[in-house]
Amino acid sequence: MSEPELDQKIETALRNSILETNAKNRLKNLLFKRLSDSGWKSKVKKRCTEIIKTKGVNNIKFDQLEDEVLAYGREIIPEDVKIELLQQISDLLDETK
Amino acid sequence: MHAVKLKGRQSKPIKKGAKRKAETPNTVLPLDQSVQNDFPSQSSNVRRVVQSTQSLKPIPPKNGCLHLKEYKENNRYTYLDNYNTIAELSMHWYRIGIPNEGVRDFDGLRRDREIILSPQKCSICSFKGDRLHACLDCVFIGCWHDQRHALKHFHGTTHTFAMDIVRLALFCFKCGDYVYDLDFETAKTLQEVRVAEKESNLKEPCAKRARYVSWQPNSEEAANISKDSTPLPCSGLRGLFNMGATCFMNAILQTFLTNPLIKNYFMTDKHNNKLCGTAGCMCCEIDNLFQEFHSGEKKPYPPCSFLHAMWLSSKELAGYAEQDAHEFYLAAINKMHSDSKESISEPLNRNGQKCECIMHKTFGGVFQSRIKCKVCNDVKTKEEPLVEWQLHLRGSPTPQKKKNGHTKASIENDANEMGDKNTLQLCLERYTAEEQIKDYKCDNCNLNYLEEGVPFNQIPASSEACTRRFSCKKLPPVLTFVVERFSREGKTTSKNEAPFEFPEEINMTKWTSLAQEVLEQGGSLDDLPDFKYNLISVVNHEGKINTGHYTVYCKNRDQWFLFDDHAVKLADIDDVLQSKRKAYLCFYIADTLEYDQL
């Protein structure tokens, strides 16, 4: 197998193993909860409606919207949420090693 | 002819001959596709089955996209059959949880000990995460991001349609977008209803619910309906004339009339003013108001008979003087409680027996104060039923001018501390924080002293301070927060106009008694369920303490309106959240309701 294919396989295997220990779900839950509490969710929702209103409902596709909002969402994540989640992720990776 | 009353929230669109106008006035809601797909529906928890603020989704078009239309015209209904099959299976894989064993998380993915992966995986790369799409033409499941195998499948085979197996959203590869089609959406709704039924049956096997059967009128029934009734444009919006400084009453009435729980109670005829017969019954007056508001009449309504009934019942609020909206709120609740047939005889039995009248069911919560004595470690809890939550503001009251023109120095400059804002969360934190109470005589300590022979009046108060904590034992379906803006110091009353920030949605878990107990035992709040609440009304007060004007922002079916006596205007959530200096009463409704709360 060539190098990039091997990398892909490793990546998928790693992903699956993380999923198997249920950790990803737990982390995702935590993230959703924190984001919702901090008001991030309402801001992103508002941004979505803004984009749709400015571009017109029929002129925008889901994937485009997703890309734009993703960029916006990533910017406005509050710092403490980032720090907490990164800490949890690094703990998790230490465990899986 | 008595106008047709729409029962409850489900209003079936009559297919033929319906002269009804669009349900949401003036605005066409954009299909919120993106939001729907990023945060899937919250029907994940088994116990909660009803969503109180279900947004009115626009009726999907008959043909989702041109490609769907083309295929339907050729009469190949295999797509719908495949969709149904996969939807049913998806429910089993992702939605139905066995109570006490599996817990569902935000994705809807079942999370119990063994089965924690998505039971399905990408047919090419075995990816087992989120956003897997199933092809509607053949047996193939493709992943979405990263490798984009779903897209590659389309390029390879030109199978046009796929569906997201968790969210059941239909994707058309030729359009490159998610499409919404009436047939598919009805199939999806049916599956979701079935799931909700199964879940509630598993959780509460004793409470028998009739199976949901979708009903469409046949041609004879449809003819009868259109012949004997006139569907009216039911917006439920109407201004209320100011009958002489009655803006306080108008504001509170508008909040009652747009409150979903109260609306359901009166619209399902639980209290009929024609059958009641009690003179001066306030419930009858409210029922009358609902009828007037849904009569289709657009001109503002003068609430004369209501005013009359109110004057007769509470003498303090009678007359043309300006009154306090909060006092009126309490008086209205009391009066409706005593007029209601379902209320229990004593007003709010303090033994925790629940009153079944509509007002207490909607607004009534139970608050708890826990006092811990540091000497004997005795914990004493006291519960109190309340229909509101009063919040103190930090910050100086607006300076009052003395007679000789000097401004009175502001008292308690707490607001000048760094970052001491008044937000709802902070106020709640302060309210539920542990406070020291001095000079408290703990009963247990008293008993100990008495046993030792010390006479009662010589028992010393505990020298170490005892601590007390407030919390909410039982959250009401509708939370009322009263911001204490009016304070009395000696002979002067002053208004505090400090800005009070409140969010559009709030999670109340932290401030419940359950959470406090968990924290005391060293547990984590993350294991507790969420108690989410959404803002539905804000009563604003402008002006001075003696004279001012009340206006109210209310959310009617997903659209915000500003009610200024007889004027009803469209408003935006931003306007509502900007009214920080004026906010006086805030109403929040629970996001999901349990059956015994309705």
From TrEMBL, chain A:
Keywords: Activator, Chromatin regulator, Cytoplasm, mRNA transport, Nucleus, Protein transport, Transcription, Transcription regulation, Translocation, Transport. GO terms for biological process: chromatin organization; mRNA export from nucleus; protein transport; transcription elongation by RNA polymerase II. Its main location: nucleus. InterPro entries: TF_ENY2 (IPR018783), TF_EnY2_sf (IPR038212). GO terms for molecular function: transcription coactivator activity. It holds the Pfam family EnY2. Belongs to the ENY2 family. Component of the nuclear pore complex (NPC)-associated TREX-2 complex (transcription and export complex 2), composed of at least SUS1, SAC3, THP1, SEM1, and CDC31. TREX-2 contains 2 SUS1 chains. The TREX-2 complex interacts with the nucleoporin NUP1. Component of the 1.8 MDa SAGA transcription coactivator-HAT complex. SAGA is built of 5 distinct domains with specialized functions. Within the SAGA complex, SUS1, SGF11, SGF73 and UBP8 form an additional subcomplex of SAGA called the DUB module (deubiquitination module). Interacts directly with THP1, SAC3, SGF11, and with the RNA polymerase II. This is Transcription and mRNA export factor SUS1. It comes from Gigaspora margarita.
TrEMBL record, chain B:
Transmembrane segments: none annotated. GO terms for biological process: protein deubiquitination; proteolysis. Residues 1-19 have a biased composition (Basic residues). One of its GO terms (molecular function) is zinc ion binding. Belongs to the peptidase C19 family. One of its GO terms (cellular component) is nucleus. Its EC number is 3.4.19.12. It comes from the Eukaryota. Residues 1-44, 395-415 are annotated as: Disordered. Keywords: Hydrolase, Metal-binding, Protease, Thiol protease, Ubl conjugation pathway, Zinc, Zinc-finger. Residues 238-591 form the USP domain. Residues 107-197 form the UBP-type domain. Pfam families: UCH, zf-UBP. This is Ubiquitin carboxyl-terminal hydrolase. It catalyses: Thiol-dependent hydrolysis of ester, thioester, amide, peptide and isopeptide bonds formed by the C-terminal Gly of ubiquitin (a 76-residue protein attached to proteins as an intracellular targeting signal).
